Amino acid sequence: MTFDLFVLPFFFGLLFLMAVLIIKYSRWIAMMDASDRIKAAMGLFSVNLLKTIKEIFMESLLHRKMFKRNPLLGYMHMSFALGWFLLIVMGNLESRVYSGGHINPPYYPIFLKFFIHDKRVLPFEIFTLPGFFRFTMDLLLLYVLSGLVLALFKRTRSKWFGLHQTTNHKRFDRWVLTSLWLIFPMRLLAESFTAGIYRGGGFLTNTLGSIFDVILPLEYLAYPAWWAYSTMLGIFFVTLPWSRFMHIPTEIILIYLRNAGIEQGKYPGSFSEIELRSCPRCGVCIDVCQMNQAGLTGSTAVYLIRSLRDKQADVQLNLNCLMCGRCLEACPVGIDTLGLRVGARSVDNKLLASDFSYLLKEPVVERKAEVAYFAGCMGHLTPGVKRAMLQIFEKAGVEYTFLDEDGSICCGRPLKLAGLQESASKLVKENTMKILDTKAKILVTSCPICYKVFNNDYELQGIEVMHHSVYIDKLVKDGKLVLQPMDMKAVYHDPCELGRGSGIYEQPRNVLKQIAEVADVSEERVNSLCCGGSIGEISMNAAKRNVIRDGALGILCESQPDILVTACPLCKKTFDSGNAILVKDIAEIVAESMILSKQKVEITAIAR
Amino acid sequence: MEKKVINFGYSVTRDRQIDFDANNRDICKIVAAAEPTINLCISCGTCTATCSAALFTDFSLRQIILLVRRGETKGLEKEISKCMLCGKCQLVCPRNVSTRNLVIQISKAITTARS
Lengths: 608, 115
What we know:
Strand content of chain A: 5-15%
Low-confidence stretches of chain A: 597-608
Helix content of chain B: 40-55%
Oligomer: heterodimer
Helix content of chain A: 55-70%
Strand content of chain B: under 5%
Mean pLDDT of chain A: 91
Radius of gyration of chain A: 30 Å
Largest sheet of chain A: 4 strands, parallel
Radius of gyration of chain B: 17 Å
C-alpha cells in the first residue's frame, strides 16, 4: 500500500507552496536590474557558491548567530531547522530501504510509519540498517520536540532566551505558528498510535505506543491522528508564503544573492522584496534599539520590515530612527535594515529637489598640497576640533589644503539618509569636483558622516579618504607626532558612522592609549551606543534625544573615567550638552598632549 | 501713459501690514500637525547665522518659518529646496526646534498643496 486519502492535505499543500514560491521568485528575478541578474547567474559558477553553501548550513540550519546571542535561543532555532531538515533527509533514506532504493512520491517518506510496519525490527534495535533509521528518526523527532518545549517556554519566559522584549506578532502569524507547533506533536501521536497497534516503532514511539495502548482505543485514534498530522502540514504550507515563515525558503535565496555580490539599491527593488521576506520577526532587533528608551517602539526594524511587506508603511513613523546600525549588527539574517529604511523614506524623494545651482558660483582654486582637509559641517560647528586638526598639521609639518575653510558644502549624507537621493547625488557631484580640484593624495575629514559617504558614494580616483583619527594614528606611527601621556583615565566612544558604519575601531584607540589609560565600556565597538544626536533621525524631539543621550552617557561613565573621548564632532557636541563628564574629540586631546611635549605652536595655515 | 509723480525726494512704501484673514494659513497648520516644534520658534535667526547653504546663497530658515506662519507661501517651494539638510541649525537652535523635519514637512506640505 503506497497511498491513502489522508496524504492529500499535505500533498496539495506542498504543491501549492511550490507553485507560489516559483511564481514569487520568478517575479523577483524578472524585476531585477540586468546587471544584478547577470551577477546572480554568475554566482552559480563562482567559488562563492561554496561560501554560500557553508553560510546556509551555518546560519539557516545551525543558527550560529542565534547561538552567539544566546545558547538557549540558538538551540531552540537549531532544533527546529536542523531537526526538521534531518527528519526529511533521513526519512527519505529510510523510505528507500523499503522501496529497494527507488525514489518515492513526496508524501511517502513523511508518512512512512503509516505504510510500513516492519515487524522484523525490534523496537530497541539499532545495529541493522532499518533499525538504525528507526532509532534515528525517533531521536530526531525528540530533538525537534525539545525545541518545541523551549519555544513554549519562550512565550512567557523570553528573558531566559536573552530577549527582554519580544515581537508583538499579528494574529495571522500566531495562527500559522500554532499550525507549525502542532505538526510535531501530531506526528508523535500518529506514529505512537500506529506503533502501539502494530507493536512497532522506535524507542520513543514504541514506548509511548505501549502506554497509549493500555489507556486509549488506538484502533479508532490512529487514523484520525494521521489525518490531523497531514492537515497541519497542509495548513502550514498553504499559509507559509504570507506569514513570517516565508523567511525559511527566502533566507536561502538572500544568502545566495548576497554572496553573488548583489546589494540593496538606492530605491526599493527586488532585492529589498527578498530581504523583507527573509525577516523571521525574531525580535532580536528590539532589545538593541535605543529608540525604546525614548518610548518610540513602533518604528523598530522588525515593524518597519513588516509594514513595508504589508505595504502599510507609515512615512512619518519611518522618520523615527537613529540609523545607528545596532539592529543591522544584531540581525541574525543580516538584513540591510538601514538600506530598507532609506528606501522607505525615499517615497518622498521629490521633495527638496534643488539643483543647488548656487554652489556653482564657488571659484575653483588651484592648490597643490599632498593632503586636503575637510572639516565638514559638524567640524565647523565645533571649532575646537577644527583648530586642533590645524595644530596637528602644523606640528607634524604637513602641508595641507583646507578644502572648506570658508564653510563647507554638505557632503550629501544627511539628504541620502532622509531618502532624498536625487538631491544628495547633486551635492556628491559638486563636492567630488571640489575635492578632485585639490590634486591631493589624501583627504582627511573630521566628520565620520562625511567619511562614510566619501568612501561609499564618491568616486575619488587616486585619493585615499581618511578619518582624522586614522590620519593621526598614521602620523604617530610615522614618528611625525610625539604624544606625551597624561595622568587620566579615559573611555572611548565609537561613533556609529565610524565604528559600525566604517569598521574603524582600533586606530582611535591606538592613539588614545598613548595619551591616557583607556577603560573598557560594557557596550563598545560593534555594540557601541548612539549618542542620540544622530543626523539619520529626523523627527524625534529634543527631550527624547536627551533621554537616549543620557542613557548612553550612563553606560560610558560606568567606570567613572576622567574624560570621554570620541572621534565625531556631532557625538562630542551631543554628549557635551549632557553636562555629565568632560568630553573631547580625539584630535583635541592629541593637540593638547603634543603641545605639552613641545613648545606652543603658532597656528598658521600655510597652504591657501 | 504713466502718471508723472513729482519727486519730493521721498517715496511712500507699500503697506507691509499682514492680513491674516486674507492669507491662507492651512499650510502652517499641516506643518504644525506634523512637526509641532514650529510653534517653539522665536525667530531669533541663529539657524540662519550658522546655515551652510546661507554661506553660498540668499537663504534664511528664519524667514521661511515666518512666511509659513503668515501664510505667504508663494515661491517658497523653490526657496526651501536650497536646504542641504546638514543639521547645523538643529544643533544651535536655542528653542530645540526640529528644523530638519520642519524643512521636510514644509516642503511636503507645499508640494502636496500645489498638486
